[in-house]
Design a protein that fits this description.
Structural class: alpha/beta
Shape: elongated
Number of strands: 16
CATH architecture of the largest domain: Alpha-Beta Barrel
CATH class of the largest domain: Alpha Beta
Helix content: 25-40%
Number of domains: 3
CATH topology of the largest domain: TIM Barrel
Radius of gyration: 27 Å
Mean pLDDT: 84
Oligomer: single chain
Largest sheet: 8 strands, parallel, barrel
Low-confidence stretches: 1-5, 307-314, 520-539
Strand order of the largest sheet: 1-2-3-4-5-6-7-8
Distance between the termini: 37 Å
Number of helices: 17
Length: 539
């Protein structure tokens, strides 16, 4: 017997489709294990409905939905939904996927716009017949049924009302109105939603039917359209973490939730979301999908709570509200981030060093500040890794499992790319190893593996230039994963020689993995957390 969750009219239901629509982003395919971990985090975040996938899409998708239904769809957890076309086999498979959840939902859809009907090679009457058959079948399996008239933004209002009214008549409890191609504007979208709520037979105010919206971001208006729909009476929003999704993506959950929270006087509604989980969830989705979050992304971007201008830094240090309309703590950050560059002053440097655990003052601060200014002149952005390296070089040498001593590579159109490296371990021993690879970085990594001998898979390698010109400083980030662990470990390296930076990043990731996993007598005495590594937070 399924559990029914009730909602009040002042609560906006958060329907997350990161695992379904979000995964349809090119290159964003997730494994069953990764889907489960994200679903668990979405549950901690407090989402009301998780669209766990499209069960009919593949056996692996069905398996992932089933596992999420069993392990995350508990009585006190979220509703678990499975998507299905208005096709009998899809609906039966969707039910197989979600039936073990305490609160299962079948979400079925059919295109209703002229272009979508042409794509299906049917007319409006045939479309209504399919809607009736699909919703009736879905209702025979569970009580919670959602129907979506796909491409509603370009569907004739008269036909849209017929389709929605029929779906309710056949048992749909949620009517989701999708702007499938991101075509509408906020004003017309609000008018459309309000008209549908008031004019659809059996689905008006007080009927118990929940009106929902699903907006795409093709014209950059997904969040604005979603918020406009909420003001017009919609009480469910379909969203994704980081706004991931097909083409330009979906409505960003964090943007909608924080807009409703920050501008309470404008919207007068609430959600069940624990916003302090946003940063952790954002990073998890970004890492698993391999899709970096743009730095200027609202709420969760690296620059969302970052300040480099001296005036801004001074203002924030004195009173955060001077330049911040919400606190970084409210979305899961510990505090604002002062971006250090050539415009920054001694005050900002001292504060940032203290945040990193380095209490530097007096002559020592002057000494570090001089070196910082030299570095800031050469680099556009001085990272935390740069500061820690600067402090280490200036005052102490932290313990490492392995460190690079020397490297030499040979590559080109003639011969085979070869790398020779010398690595030292934390016992003071040095090892020299040569290897051949498909390129200089591959050869270098093969040589390192021959010395370190810690099995792993390289799952991400990213390189970018920090400064302009032929002498640009290159930064490399990598992610590696031990066999069958499901965990990932990141590493960072920077150098004017990109091969050297690549080696530094790989060794940093290995050091982090060794610290976390433990590998025999490699682990040093004392607290392994003191190992100096450059890493992300993805494990």
């Amino acid at each position: 017997m399924s559990v029914t969750r009730t909602y009040d009219e002042n609560t906006v239901i958060i329907f997350d489709t990161t695992l379904r629509d979000g995964e349809q982003s090119p290159g964003a395919t997730l494994s069953s294990a990764e889907k489960l971990e994200i679903a668990r985090q979405l549950s901690r975040l407090g989402v009301d409905v998780i669209e766990a996938g499209f069960p009919a899409a593949s056996p692996d998708d069905l398996k992932a939905v089933q596992r999420i239904a069993r392990e995350v769809g508990t009585p006190d957890g979220p509703t678990v939904a499975g998507l299905a076309r208005a096709v009998e086999s899809d609906i039966r498979t969707a039910w197989e996927g979600v039936k073990d959840a305490a609160k299962p939902r079948i979400h079925t859809f059919l295109g209703t716009s002229p272009s979508h009907l042409r794509m299906l090679r049917i007319d409006e009457e045939e479309g209504l017949k399919r809607i009736r058959k699909a919703v009736t079948l879905a209702k025979s399996f569970c009580d919670d049924i959602e129907f979506s008239p796909m491409d509603a933004g370009r569907t004739d209002m008269g036909y849209l009302i017929k389709a929605c009214s029929l779906a309710v008549e056949c048992g749909a409890t949620t009517l989701n109105i999708p702007d499938t191609v991101g075509y509408v504007t906020p004003k017309e979208w609000a008018e459309k939603i309000e008209y549908l709520i008031n004019e659809t037979p059996g689905a008006g105010p007080g009927s118990g039917v929940i009106w929902s919206v699903h907006c795409h971001n093709d014209l950059g208006m997904a969040t604005a359209n979603t918020l406009a729909a909420v003001q017009a009476g919609a009480r469910q929003v379909e969203v994704t973490i980081n706004g991931v999704g097909e083409r330009a993506g979906n409505t960003s959950m964090e943007e909608v939730v924080m807009a409703l929270h920050t501008r309470k006087s404008a919207y007068d509604v609430r959600t069940n979301i624990d916003a302090t989980q946003f940063m952790k969830t954002s990073r998890m989705v970004s890492n698993y999908m391999g899709m970096p979050v743009q730095p200027n992304k609202a709420i969760v971007g690296a620059n969302a709570f970052a300040h480099e201008s001296g005036i801004h830094q001074d203002g924030v240090l004195k009173d955060a509200e001077t330049f911040e309309i919400m606190t970084p703590e409210s979305v899961g950050l510990t505090q604002s981030r002062l971006v250090l560059g050539k415009h920054s002053g001694r005050h900002a440097l001292k504060v940032r060093l203290a945040e990193l655990g380095f209490n530097v003052d007096g002559d020592a601060l002057n000494q570090v500040f001089g070196r910082f200014k030299d570095l800031a002149d050469a680099k556009k952005h001085v990272t935390d890794a740069d500061l820690e390296a600067l402090i280490a070089d200036e005052f102490h040498k932290p313990q490492e499992f392995y460190r690079l001593e020397d490297i030499q590579v040979a590559c080109g159109t003639m011969g085979m790319p070869t790398a020779t490296i010398r690595i030292a371990n934390n016992k003071g021993e040095s090892f020299v190893q040569a290897a051949v690879g498909t390129g200089p970085v591959d050869a270098s990594y093969r040589a390192i593996d021959a010395v370190v001998d810690v099995p792993n898979t390289l799952i991400e390698y990213s390189v970018h230039s920090v400064t302009e010109g032929i002498d640009a400083l290159g930064e490399v980030t990598v992610r590696i994963s031990p066999p069958e662990s499901g965990r990932t470990f990141g590493g960072y390296g920077a150098d004017s020689d990109i091969v050297v930076a690549s080696v530094k990043a790989y060794i940093a990731a290995l050091n982090r993995m060794i610290a976390a996993m433990g590998h025999g007598d490699i682990v040093p005495e004392g607290d392994a957390a003191t190992v100096n590594i450059r890493a992300d937070e993805s494990s």
